[in-house]
Amino acid sequence: MHTNLIWSRSHAFVFVVCCQLLAVGQSTEPPSQLTLPPQQQPSPRATPNDNQPATQPSSSQPGQPRPARSKPPQTPREQAWHLLESGCASDKTIDRATATLVLGLIPNSVNSARLAEKALTDDKPEVRSAAAKVLARDPDPATTRALTDAAGDKSWIVQTAALEALAKRGDRSALNTVAKYMADEKDAVRYTAAAAVLRLTTRRD
């Protein structure tokens, strides 16, 4: 009976030791073989950039020249010409007429004469009249021809401005053209033509 008791205890001891060894073996498995919960399993098709928006190509790549921009006027003189040229090309009649008229403040300027000659063909009489007044100071002999044509304008305010400009220029080659307007139907045109004739025929010492 004593022998059986020792044998039973030996079997129990071996069983306990085996259980402990088995438990230690399971706890030392590599972490990579542990089963993860479903929500932690990585997607087989997922990539690091799947959830990031695609990078848009840059509009300006390094090494490529940027579009050229018009150089803004720098000096006060350049700014002044830019302003007057913009005024002469304005959509507003009052702006074109005013910008044209003040060109007369610039003596012996080819640029102002060019702008005034262009304004002499404007569709508004206020602008054409301003241009005629400016051209009175233009020394170019060809301007006399443009002013004699303007003296026959359909608008009387342009006619008077052109006749006055011809008188101020003192070019006697325009005398016959000026004289015929003393018979014009408009009083203002007749009076201006008469004064222009007297000025052109006055002797200068």
Question: Given this structure, which CATH class of the domain at 76-201 is correct?
Answer: Mainly Alpha
SS-based class: mainly alpha
> What share of the residues lie within helices?
55-70%
State the shape.
elongated
Radius of gyration: 50 Å
Average of per-residue pLDDT values: 79
Distance between the termini: 168 Å
Count all strands and give the number.
Answer: 0
Query: In this structure, how is the largest beta sheet organized?
Result: none
The CATH architecture assignment of the domain at 76-201 turns out to be Alpha Horseshoe
Proportion of residues in extended strands: under 5%
Find the CATH superfamily of the domain at 76-201.
Answer: Leucine-rich Repeat Variant
Write a brief caption for the model.
By secondary structure, the chain is an all-alpha fold. The chain has helices at 2-27, 76-88, 93-101, 110-119, 125-135, 142-150, 156-169, 175-180, 187-201.
